[in-house]
Specification:
mainly alpha, 71% helix, single chain, 398 residues, 19 helices
Amino acid sequence: MIDQLLRELAPQIVGPLVRRYGGFDTCEDAVQEALLAASQQWPVDGVPSNPRSWLITVASRRRIEMLRSEAARLRREETVAGLESSEPAPLDVDDSLTLLFLCCHPSLTPPSQIALTLRAVGGLTTGEIARAFLVPESTIGQRISRAKATIKKEGAEFRLPPADELPERLTAVLAVLYLIFNEGYTASSGESLHRVELSTEAIRLTRQLQARLPSEGEVAGLLALMLLTDARRPARTAPDGALIPLPDQDRSLWLDDFVAEGTELISATLRTASIGPYQLQAAIAAVHDEAPRAEDTDWRQILVLYELLETLSPGPMVSLNRIVALAMVHGPEYGLERLAATADDPALKDHHRVEAVRAHLLELSGDTTAAQAAYRLAARQTLSAPEQQYLLARADSL
C-alpha cells in the first residue's frame, strides 16, 4: 500500500519543486531521496496525516542542500539570489501532466523517455525499472542521467507545450505509454509472459492523462485499448506459465469490470471524437471481448476495422493482423497468399510472429507438416520463453 501511495504522489512532488527551485534534474534527484526516506520511515513510524506535504518538505530540504553545496555554489549564486528575493512559487499544484510531457520531450530517445517517465512520473526506482526490462540497473541509471542532461541542455521549460505543439507532443506521450503497456502485457524476452508492474503502471498513468484531457479521443482510445486487452491477462497463461492463445482462453476468467469499462469508454469516444489509431485498436479489442466464444467472433467487422487502421496508421504489425482477419473471413489459403506478399518487408524479416501466423494458417488449411516446421522456426526466433514453449507445444501436437 505504501509503495502504491508513493508512486501516486511522486509526480505531484517533482512538479512543485521544479516550479519553485528550477532544475528538473536536481529536483528529480531530491524527490527520489525523499521517496526513499518515506519507504524506510513510514512502515516504522506510520504514514503522516499529509503524506504529500511530508514528501515536499523533505525533498525541498534536500534540494536546498544541493543549492548550497560547494559543487553548485558558483553555478547557482545568481539563481539562489533571485529565488531569495522573489516570491516563492506555490507548492500545492499538481503538475503531473506537465511532468509527463517533459519526460516525453522529443529530443529524447524512446528508451530514455520510457525510463524517465517510469521514474519521475511513475515513481518506480531505477532498480525496479531495470528488473522490469531485464537489464542492468546501471543501464537504466545511465538512460535516466542522459535524459535529464539532454533536457537541461535543450533548455526545456517546465510548462505544458503551446497549443500548436500539443498534438505532436501528445502523440509522443501516448506512444511511450503504449510501449510501456505492451512490454508489460507481452514481455519481449525472459521467462515470464507478463511484467504486471509495467502494464499496471501504464494503465494508471493513462487514467491520469485521460482525467486531465477528457476531450482527447485518442487518450480515451488508448485507455480503452489497455483495459480491454489487460482484461484477458488472467486467462493468458496456464499454471505452468505457458501461453494460452486467445481462441483457447477460458473467457470466464476475463476481468468483466475492465471489459465493461473499456467497451463503454470506446463506444462513447467513437461517437464524439475524431477517429484515431488507438480508438480503432480498442474497437477491435472490444469486438473480441464481446464474443461469448471464439467461434462467435465477428471477423468481418474486425477486418473492416483493420482496413481502416491500415489506411490511417499503416505498419507491419497492422498488416500482419489484417492478414489474419482476411484468412478468418476468406479462408486460410487466401491468408497464406497475402502473407507471402510480405516476404520483402524488412520490418517483418525474421520476426517470429510472421512464422507463427504462417504456421496457424497452414494448420487451418490442413498442411500439418509445413505447419509443424513453421511453428518450430517461430519458436527459434522468439526470445520469450512462454511463447517458445507454446509454439513448440503446437508443433508437437501436430
